[in-house]
Write a structure and sequence with these properties.
Layout (H helix, E strand, L loop, with lengths): L6 H15 L13 H4 L3 H15 L10 H4 L2 H17 L1
Length: 90
């Protein structure tokens, strides 16, 4: 799967998940919007992590849930690509 999907495609899917399942209908989200500005709380963040794990077959370790990986959708999707590439290399 690592070679089949791009960070941009992951970002689009994460934005759509946030729009459909986490945020109010009038909230605008794009890959660079800070999740904290959107009002994403710890429960919503866990929903997003679970979506990633189910959708992309990844396991996000607790030590990965740091601000630089979780600041916005772009950072999170870039981290997912790094994990996918690591899994693909294994």
């Amino acid at each position: 799967m690592a070679n089949d999907i791009t960070a941009s495609e992951i970002a689009n899917q994460l934005c759509e998940f946030l729009r459909s399942n986490v945020l109010a209908g009038d909230v605008v989200v794009n890959p660079d919007t800070e999740l904290s500005q959107l009002g994403v709380d710890s429960f919503s963040l866990m929903e997003l992590v679970l979506f990633i794990e189910r959708r992309f077959g990844l396991e996000l370790p607790a030590e990965a849930l740091v601000p630089e990986n979780m600041a916005n959708v772009r950072a999170l999707s870039a981290y997912c690509i790094r994990l996918l590439n690591k899994v693909g290399d294994a």
